[in-house]
Amino acid sequence: MRDHDIETQPPRLQIFENVVPGQLLEEMNATLDACRQSWRPADGRRATDTAARFAELLRRHAPFQVAERQACARSRQGAREAGWDIGRGPPLYVLRCVNGSLRGQSHLRHYDSHILTLLIPLQQAAPTRENGDLIIYRHRRDTVAAWKNVITKVRLILLRSLPFAIRRALTFRHLALGLCDRIACVPGNLYVFNGFVTLHANLHVESGERRSLIFHYYDPGLTAGLSHVPRAWRTLRDRLLDAIQPVRSGD
Predict the structure, then answer these.
(1) Which residues pair with 214 in a beta bridge?
(2) CB atoms < 10 A from the CB of 99, how many?
(3) Residue 160: pLDDT band with limits 50, 70, 90
(4) Helix, strand or coil, per DSSP, at residue 153
(5) 84: confidence class by pLDDT, cuts 50, 70, 90
(6) Nearest to 195 by CA among 130, 121, 123, 109
(7) Are 201 and 112 in contact (CB under 8 A)?
(8) What is the DSSP-derived secondary structure letter of residue 178?
(9) DSSP characters for 44-62?
(10) What is the rounded distance in angstroms from the CA atom of residue 75 to the CA atom of residue 191?
């Protein structure tokens, strides 16, 4: 199988400031506050219907509409030039709520299975040395073949199983060497990047809670099914959780 050349890419990271109204942020956080003990799985990640509902609320505001449309258009163009068949499937919407008890969700370097990632911070953690900030690596992989992608994913899964202290030490060493950047994610802003070719992770949360809404678009299908099993399991888990006690929106 041939390599897929990535010829047209947007900047490594685009930041659209103040595209989410403050009142909407308050409403979304109030929804999560109302059910903070009932909805979360052990990994702090859930593809719940509420995430899709939040997405529709965001799209009622012109600044977010424009940013999303621009990001999607550029990603589709890049996918066409790379020869990827991305189809027209719906985005994957995910809510993440991570606090200090979830060390297993910190310093996990990975590539996404989807080409385009939109990150919308809903709430920042306490301003400590580690507050869950986004880590973006500077070097992006230039070509992707299915077999290379599978090998990379397996290697990263093994690295993610390392003890927390080692994963953390690696992150701060990479920051000191200038291999990656720490991005302070501010609620109200929108962060756009190609998670399929950009290695990224998050710092640990020492105090408080980091909340994020994430949109994933355009799966090129280069994981040989590795992403389908965990994704199907999480979808089943989230549906069961919704059936037991759904996350209720404010309206």
Answers:
(1) 94, 119
(2) 18
(3) confident
(4) helix
(5) confident
(6) 109
(7) no
(8) T
(9) SEE--HHHHHHHHHHTTSH
(10) 14
Helix residue ranges, H only, the chain: 22-34, 49-58, 62-82, 146-160, 164-176, 228-244
CB 203 within 8 A of CB 135: yes
Structural domains of the chain ordered from first start: 4-241 (2.60.120.620)
How is residue 152 written in tokens? Answer: 């990379």
pLDDT at residue 158, as a whole number? 79
Under a CB-based contact definition with an 8 Å cutoff, are residues 140 and 198 in contact?
Answer: yes
Are the C-beta atoms of residues 19 and 61 closer than 8 Å to each other? yes
pTM for this model (two decimals): 0.81
Residue 19, token pair as written in the block: 């595209």
- Residues in the chain, overall count: 251
Radius of gyration from C-alpha coordinates of the chain:
18
Q: Quick one: which of 29, 207, 13, 16 has its CA closest to 126? A: 207
Quick one: pLDDT at residue 8? 39
Instruction: Give the C-alpha separation, 7 to 3, whole Å.
Output: 12
Average pLDDT over residues 36-59: 75
Angstrom distances, CA of residue 224 to CA of 143, 147, 220, 228: 17, 8, 11, 9
Report which DSSP code applies to 131.
Answer: B
Q: State residue 50 phi and psi, 5-degree precision.
A: -65, -35
